[in-house]
Amino acid sequence: MNGRTLAYRKVYELIKGDILGARYGVGSLMPTEAELEDIYGVSRSTVRKAMELLEKEGYVDIRQGRGTLVKDFSARQDYTRVNSVTETLKKRGYHVSTRKLHIEKCRVPERAAKRLALQQSDWVVHVQRIQEADGNPVCFMENYIPYHLAEGLEKETGIVSLYQFLEENYGFEIERTKDVIAAATANFYEAEILAVPVGTAMLQVERVCYSPSGEPVCMDYVRILGSYYQVEMEGFGRNRPVRGGN
């Protein structure tokens, strides 16, 4: 790797960090190339290559003659509808693909048994994936499905959107979900796979999916880079204390 390549990659990381840190806010115009030269102390060609890479990854929109716009790069999960993380990323405009896929039939682990109302002697299909957005690895996904609901799934390959696959091939109906969302940071293993520094902000989503009859049919465990995913909710009304009459 030569010095020039190192220079533009370093500037790319610096500018990306400033975008994620809101120094350059979503919807705002970036400084000009000349201003970026001064800010980061590099040449015009280095700035240009760094910005081209940022545009390719969906962080900015370079508009000739009009400046460079910081894009809304985060996928927002709309909790008024049931959508998977994969579907949410696709709706945001990312091309989503599966980098690694492993499916196995196994005994249900303890954490999934409780949420799926199963005995630990019961069988499940365990799906593990690394998902990519526009070619960049962004999340780890694990799914547990009672085996009697998805018999033979362990023989499948090439699954990208699991919910869609289950609906089309197994007649799944997911009526509602219950999510537990927590802040997390990338550990060493995750940082290596996702090509980010250890400690990078992530979101952890643990979800249980329910059928129209109320039966738990799938448990999901997802860890996704925080820069690619946001949660959007709406609240209606408030419970107010009832005042005594007398």
What does this protein look like?
With 246 residues, the protein is of the alpha+beta class. The chain has two domains: 3-70, Winged helix-like DNA-binding domain superfamily/Winged helix DNA-binding domain (Arc Repressor Mutant, subunit A); 75-232, 3-Layer(aba) Sandwich (Chorismate lyase). 28% of the residues lie in helices and 33% in strands. The protein has helices at 3-20, 33-40, 44-56, 85-91, 110-115, 162-170, 188-194, and strands at 60-63, 67-70, 75-78, 96-107, 123-133, 136-146, 176-185, 201-210, 216-225, 229-232. A six-stranded antiparallel sheet has the order 4-5-6-9-8-7. Helix 1 (3-20) crosses helix 3 (44-56) and helix 2 crosses helix 3 (44-56). The model is unreliable at 1-5 (pLDDT under 50).
Task: Break the fold down into its secondary structure elements and pairings.
Blueprint: H1 3-20, H2 33-40, H3 44-56, E1 60-63, E2 67-70, E3 75-78, H4 85-91, E4 96-107, H5 110-115, E5 123-133, E6 136-146, H6 162-170, E7 176-185, H7 188-194, E8 201-210, E9 216-225, E10 229-232
Parallel strand pairs: 3-10
Antiparallel strand pairs: 1-2, 4-5, 5-6, 6-9, 7-8, 8-9
Summarize it.
The chain has about 250 residues and is an alpha+beta fold. The protein is built from seven helices and ten strands.
- Given as residue ranges, the uncertain stretches (5+ residues, pLDDT < 50) are 1-5
How widely separated are the two ends?
A: 81 Å
Order of helices and strands: HHHEEEHEHEEHEHEEE
Largest sheet: 6 strands, antiparallel
Tally of separate helices: 7
- The figure for the number of domains is 2
**Strands, count:** 10
